[in-house]
Amino acid sequence: MVKLVLVLMLILAVVGILLGAIGSALLGNEYFVPVPEVHLAPQEVFTVGSFVITNTLLSAWLTTLVILLLFGLGTRKMRFVPGRLQGFLEFLIEALFGFVKGVAGEKYARKWFPLLATIFLFVAFNAWMALLPFYPTVGFTKDGADHITTHLFRSAGTDINMPLALAVIAFLFIEIWGFRVHGIGYLKEFIRIGNPIQMFIGLIELISHFIRLVSFTFRLFGNMLAGEIVLFMMTFLTIIITPVVFYGLEILVGGVQALVFMGLTLVFAVMAVATHGEHNHEDSEAESH
Amino acid sequence: MLGAPLLEEASGIGALGIDLTSLLVYLINFTVLGLILYFMAYKRIIGMLDSRSERIRESLEEADRVRKESEEQQESMQKALDDGRQEGQRVLAEAREAAERYREQQAEQARAESEQIVSRAREEIKQERDAALESVRAEFAVLAVSAAEKIIKRSLDADAQQDLIDEVISESNAKQEQD
What we know:
The complex is a heterodimer of chains A (289) and B (179). Chain A has helices at 2-19, 21-27, 55-74, 84-129, 134-137, 161-182, 196-238, 242-273, 279-288; strands at residues 44-48, 51-54, 139-140, 150-151. Chain A is mainly alpha-helical and 289 residues long. Chain A has one domain. In chain A, strands 1-2 form a two-stranded antiparallel ribbon. Chain B is mostly helical. Chain B has one domain (12-178). In chain B, 86% of the residues lie in helices and 0% in strands. Chains A and B meet through strand 2, helix 3, helix 4, strand 4 and helix 6 of A and helix 1 of B.
C-alpha cells in the first residue's frame, strides 16, 4: 500500500514537473500556471474613504478572528478536566509560559507573558494561515487579465507594516521596562560620561537598541516574503507534489520565526531589566537563546 | 503576489510599501488582539493551570499526610498489638502460676486430708481392735474359768474366781506383749 502511494506520488511529481514551467520550457509548451509577479508592497482590495484596505490587512484581520474564535471556543467553558480544544490551548499556553518563565523568571513571566504570547500567536498563525489553499487561489482580475491580479488574502507577514508594527511594540516594551526598573538610571547604559571608549560604547549601545527595530522588522518580513516567493516559484515550476515539501518547510519557518520574534523580545527585555552589573551574564544568556 | 501593488511602483525603501496608516492599524489590531486574549484566554488558562497545579500539589501533600498518618496508625496498632501480646503473655503466665499454685495447694490439702483420714482410720481401727481384744479377753477369761471349773470339777467362790480371772488376764497380756 505504501509502495503504491509512493509510486503514485512519483508519477504525479513527474507529471507536475512536465506540466510546470520546467516541463514547458523543455517541451516548448505554454505555461500551465501564470508567471508569478513578485511585488513587495501589499495590494489594494478596496478603500473605505481614504483608507486603503489591503489584502495583507484583511489577512491580519482574518487571522485575528481565527485566533479569537479558537481561544473563544476553547475557553468558553473552562473545565478542570479539559476537553480536546481546551487541552490543546492549555498545552500551547503552558509551553509558551514555561519558555518565558525559564528565561525571565516567575516574577516577570506573569507580567510579560500576555504580550509575548500574542506576538507568537499572531506571527505563527499569520504564517500558517497563508498556507491554506484559498490564499493563493481567491482574488480578482483587473484590466481584462486572464489570471488573478489581486489576491483577496496575503500573509500579513509579507507586508512590512506588520513586522514593523510588532517591532515598534517590542521596542517600546523593552525600553519601557528598562525605564520602569532602573528609572532614569537606565540612560546610563547609553550616556557614559568620562572615558571616551565608554562614551563610544554607550553610543553603540544606543544605536544597537534602535537597530533592533530594523532587525526585528526585516527578519520577519524577509522570511515570510521569501517563503511566499519560494512557494509561488515551486508551484510555478513543478505544480504538484514537489511544492508540498516546501509547504512543510514553511510550517516550520512560521513557528520558528514566531518563536524567534518572541524569544528575542524576551531576551532583550531581560537584558533591559537586569542590573548593569549583570549585563555580561545576561548577554551570554541571550546569545545562548 | 500577483498583480498591481498598493503603492505605485517605487524604487528603494518606497517599494516596500511602508504606510503610516497601515502601521497604526496593525498596532491597534495587535493591541486589541492582545487585550482580548489577555482577558478571554491567558488569564483564565493560566488561572486554570495554576489552580490545577495547586490542586495537584495539595493532593500530593494530602497523600503524603495520609501516608504518614497511615504509617503512624500502623505503628500505633503494631505497638498496641505488641503490648496486648505482652499483656496476654503476662496474664497467661500469671494464670499458669496461679493454677500451679492452686494445684499444689489442692494437692497438699488432699494429701493432708488423706493423711488425716488415714490417721483417724488407724486410730479407729486401733480402738476397735483394743475393744475387740478386751472383749475377747473377757470372753476368753469366762470361757477359761468355765473350762477350768469343768475340768477340776470344783467351784470357786466369787473372790477366788475374780483373782483367777485377773491372773489369767495378766498372763494373757504378758503373752500378748511378748507376741
